[in-house]
Write a structure and sequence with these properties.
The complex is a heterodimer of chains A (about 325) and B (about 260). With about 325 residues, chain A is α/β, with parallel strands linked by helices. Chain A has helices at about 40-45, 70-75, 90-100, 105-120, 135-145, 165-180, 190-195, 215-225, 235-245, 275-285, 300-319; strands spanning about 1-10, 15-25, 30-35, 55-60, 65, 75-80, 155, 185-190, 200-205, 210-215, 225-235, 250-255, 265-270, 290-295. Chain A has eleven helices and 14 strands. In chain A, strands 6-7-8-3-9-10 form a six-stranded mixed beta sheet, sandwiched between helices. In chain A, a hairpin with a 2-residue loop joins β1 (about 1-10) and β2. The radius of gyration of chain A is 25 Å and the shape is elongated. Chain A starts with a strand and ends with a helix. Chain B is mainly α and about 260 residues long. Chain B contains twelve helices and no strands. Chain B has helices spanning about 1-15, 20-50, 60-85, 85-95, 95-100, 110-125, 130-140, 145-170, 180-200, 205-215, 215-225, 230-255. Chain B is globular. The model of chain B has no long low-confidence stretch (mean pLDDT about 85). Classes of the chains: A alpha/beta (about 325), B mainly alpha (about 260). The interface of A and B includes residues 82, 85 and 100 of A.
């Protein structure tokens, strides 16, 4: 449904998007994950035909986004970073205007508006002026705008920004319910959002794709490598020596806690092993006081940090 | 076409709730009404002197008043029009709604024409109440002002105002700051005004060129009841040129965005 090949966008010497390639299948939800300024918004703007790319190609529903821009725009619904609303309009007239510029015939407009209002849960704000709505409601009007004309492809730039936790859950449910009949790209820097809603994730950092996979695969890739947190009353050096000797400890990092003379150790464990009981036994054997011992399983968050900071380290090394 | 109408409708609706539009129309009607009253009274005094045989030459008071009045309207427009046009595109960019328009299946020309026609409609609506002044003269003067002066005069005002709107819309598309757009437009209008002064010395070639370029000079023929094709073509090309430039400018926003 969406194909992106070697997409590059430079603003003078700055490369915002650097040879990005990915595809989105029909009915799929693709998550675009990256820190602020990673190039998510730029990529989405190129896909919607708002800005042209410096090089590379992109097509939506078989139409080239540069050559057939009008045709592409007929197939998409787009929620930009800032909801593109007119403060002086009521929610209803605004959606009616959107339907008109999206070329939806008059006889379908009424039902489409009601549908969109229901989906985004703003039926009671129907006749309210948009400028009187709170941030979260404006965001939902923006969302209603993106799907009111029932487009085949929906592109959402940070759809849950400004919503309260309950609304975030509602919006996630809404996005999930749209999958199958619609192809969706959404961007976010909130990690749980991706694992909850998306079929596949593109992790993007500094304009480059760091990883493309399903959220499950990305998590399981690093699940093997568990980490253990140890807090014990001991000197740094002996604790480190002791822990490295335990079979299965891949990497040990010890630091002194300044306030109480404890040492904190972070032990990375080889995949498939659980050495928590050995660690406890060894420390007690030495007669040290053990205050805390717990396993930390790597979440998508850690994967994300690992991928994005690794990239930064590479960049520094190459300089 | 449907896209153009959607934009037109939206703009008209916007004018209805825009405090700026109300302020401009109100100010325009107040000042033009005040001056119309002044002109009528001075014309009355002059004709009184004439009747008393105090040596003032006979003149067609009604046409005279109408001509001066139309000149005043043109002057007022130079000051008030920037307020109507400054937000046309700048506002849209600032609010981020340009992103909606430009990712919807409508062409740039539909956006530009829809907005231009809507502002022209507002402008025509703003002129409409001045018909009362003309009607007043029609009922109370003798001889009545010739119809050709009235019709040609209003056609001239529409063309003149349309030119200012097209230029103002173009300047508004260059920036996302309404105030800058307003100041630019006001400066450009003043320049047009100055061009008129420069063209007073019509003997030299540069003077003649300036004379042809001046937006205001072409207007004066209309107030005499003359529809000169060269003036008609001048205004229509002026409007077309700036609509074309606005379309290019809107199109180039895609490239300019940093």
């Amino acid at each position: 449904m969406i194909e992106v090949q070697n997409l590059t966008k430079s603003y003078g010497p700055v490369t915002a998007v650097d040879h990005v390639s990915f595809t989105v299948n029909e009915g799929e939800i693709l998550g675009f994950l990256g820190p602020n300024g990673a190039g998510k918004t730029t990529t989405m703007r190129i896909l919607t035909g708002y800005i042209p790319a410096t090089s590379g190609t992109a097509s939506i529903a078989g139409f080239d986004v540069f050559g057939d821009s009008l045709e592409v725009r007929r197939h998409i619904g787009y929620l930009p970073e800032v909801p593109p609303v007119y403060p002086d309009m009521t929610v209803e007239t605004y959606l009616d205007f959107v339907l008109r510029i999206k070329n939806v015939p008059a006889d379908k407009r009424r039902s489409r508006i009601s549908e969109a209002l229901e989906k985004t849960n703003i039926v009671d704000k129907r006749t309210e002026l948009i400028k009187r709505l709170s941030r979260g409601y404006k965001q939902r009007v923006g969302l209603a705008q993106a799907l009111v004309h029932d487009p085949t492809v929906i592109i959402l730039d940070e759809p849950t920004v400004g919503l309260d936790p309950k609304q975030i859950i509602e919006v996630r449910h809404l996005i999930k319910s749209l999958a199958g009949t619609h192809t969706i790209i959404l961007s976010t820097h909130i990690l749980p959002e991706v694992s909850m809603t998306c079929d596949r994730v593109v992790i993007i950092n500094k304009g480059k794709i760091a990883a493309v996979d399903t959220p499950q695969n990305l998590t399981s890739q690093l699940k093997g490598g568990q980490r253990i947190y140890v807090d014990a009353q001991a000197a740094e050096k002996p604790l480190e020596d002791l822990l490295t000797k335990i079979p299965g400890a891949a990497r040990v990092q010890v630091s002194a806690s300044r306030s109480n003379g404890h040492s904190i150790a972070n032990v990375e464990v080889a995949p498939g092993k659980d050495i928590r009981s050995q660690i406890a036994a060894k420390i007690v054997e030495q007669g040290w006081a053990l205050y805390e011992l717990r396993g930390i399983s790597l979440s998508l968050e850690d994967i994300f940090l690992e991928l994005t900071t690794d990239d930064a380290a590479h960049a520094q090394a190459s300089n | 076409m449907r896209g153009l109408y959607a934009i037109y409708r939206k703009e008209i609706g916007h004018f209805f709730v825009s405090p700026i539009a109300y302020a401009v129309v109100g100010l325009f009607l107040f000042i033009s009404g005040f001056f119309f009253n002044l002109y009528v009274q001075s014309a009355l005094q002059e004709s009184m002197q004439e009747m008393q045989g105090m040596g003032a030459p006979a003149f067609d008071a009604a046409s005279q008043v109408l001509r001066v009045f139309l000149g005043l309207v043109a002057l007022l427009l130079l000051f008030l029009m920037p307020m109507l046009t400054m937000g046309i595109f700048a506002d849209e960019r600032k609010r981020g709604t340009m992103e909606l328009l430009m990712t919807s299946p409508i062409r740039e020309i539909d956006i530009v024409l829809g907005k231009f026609l809507a502002s022209l409609t507002l402008f025509a609506a703003m002129l409409l109440p001045t018909a009362i002044f003309v009607l007043f003269m029609y009922l109370h003067t003798s001889p009545v002002p010739p119809l050709r002066i009235i019709l040609a005069g209003y056609l001239g005002i529409l063309l003149f105002g349309g030119s200012l709107l097209a230029l103002g819309a173009f300047l508004s598309s260059l920036t996302e700051n309404q105030i800058i757009a307003g100041v630019l437009t006001f400066g450009a209008f003043l320049l047009l005004w100055a061009l008129d002064f420069g063209s007073r010395d019509a003997g030299s070639t540069p003077g003649q060129v300036l004379h042809y370029l001046s937006v205001i000079n072409h207007f004066e023929d209309f107030t005499r009841g003359i529809i000169d094709t060269s003036s008609l073509i001048y205004y229509l090309s002026f409007i077309t040129l700036f609509i074309f430039l606005t379309v290019r400018s809107v199109d180039s926003m895609r490239w300019r965005r940093a």
